[in-house]
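Dear support,

I submitted the protein below through the web form. The confirmation email said the job was done, but the results page showed an empty box. After a refresh the structure appeared. I'm attaching both so you can tell me whether what I see now is the final result or a partial one.
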Amino acid sequence: MNLGLWLERSAVSFAARPALVRGGRVEADYAEFHRRAAALARCLRQRGVEPGGRVAIFARNCIEYLVAFYGVWLAGAAVVPINAKLHPREAAWIIGNSGAKLGFVTPGSGLRKEVDIPLVDVTGNGFAEMTAGEGMAAEPRGGDDICWLFYTSGTTGRPKGVRISHSMVLATSLAYPVDVDPVTCDDAALYSAPMSHGAGIYAGIHIRMGAQHIVPLSGGFDEDEVLELSAAHGSASMFMAPTMVRRLLDRAKERDMRGDGIKTIVYGGGPMYVADIVEAVDWFGPKFVQIYGQGECPMAITAMSREQVADRGHPRWRERLGSVGRAQSVVEVAIGDAGGGLLASGESGEIMVRGQPVMPDYWQNDAATAKTFAGGWLLTGDVGRMDADGLVTLVDRSKDLIISGGTNIYPREVEEALLEHGAVREVSVVGRASAEWGEDVVAFVVLGEGVQADAAALDAHCLANIARFKRPKDYFFVGELPKNNYGKVLKTELRKRLEEMADG
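What the results page shows now:
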């Protein structure tokens, strides 16, 4: 079924209830939300966006983001939400690869110089006109039809498009009240994390249940806004990366605020230190739920309930907090070897998942798809173990992946950008432990013979070619990179050097 039907139905069941809230101001009830989305759907069809076509969204969080999502879905097309932090050139590559014929943006995107498709500023008159006309009913779609094309970084240096279907999002959405948190029409979803990622996935179940959708005026994560908007509304739920939780906790303590109005914080997207979640629960109370997922199985691999996160009476409570919980209701999770064979309880291997929320394939990338599946299982690339109680603990992750501030950064992307600088002969990028961000990006650089470049020059080069958050925090200029007998760079040695620097 078409996901847009949920909005269509809520426009009847919750017609006059507030739906879209900008800051503290209600801007649309559910009837108006649906009217705008349906009008946009008709306009998109008139502009040649056919069922199965793609429409890009390169925007900061705003209430128009949700109108765009559901307008595209009602038209039978698929959204291509792009992280607003990306460099315009990176966004342009995604748009080209996806075949999107139109894009929605917010001011300052810088995208107009990079693409030749029509771009509509969602804060301008053009978008208002597109959402003001006559609407259309939801275009019939099958469960396997694409609704979302999510681009996740890949070790090749180019993003891979995850083909997310209507049935995948429906499964994840229905698992939310079962495995994560019940939702009612008195609740609110607060969008402090990017709507292009997990926060956007979770919008669906809140729309179906008639909850409010609050977008901060900042369009992003601001600790004071989160605390104040939650207190003003009450019963607010939101998704946060572990670093966001840490920042919110620190600010709340500074202001002596206990998170009044916060119903639930779902955390995931990176490792949460046990000490941090213990401190967060002690300060805010039992408001936290943990989930583990990835773009290929969005938000739906494992979960740990608020009761389990807050429980200190269990004999293994600290060990349990160090895990990512148990398999969600809509998937099977197992630990396997390189060929997809199952391993015994307690053994470490690759975390594997199968079920309705798992992607069918990567967009136009058969080779990557073949490497990601074995014996019917999706290979997550994460190493972990499962105990006899079904608790899954991450032992390690794909060895090169850096998670900074809850965002995945693949070193190959940064390395390729740096190698385009004329002075750089070799480079290796690794993650360094950071109390604030989880990990910092660090580059070890070998310059070409007879040429010079300093950190400022390389930083300027990165800023001109990749997203700001991907650029290295530090550059270490070395005579050579450590390598094995086959000429492969030994990143383990570089990480060891960083640890020795920290110790020394």
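Response: this is the final, complete result; the empty box was a page-load delay. The chain has 17 helices and 25 strands.
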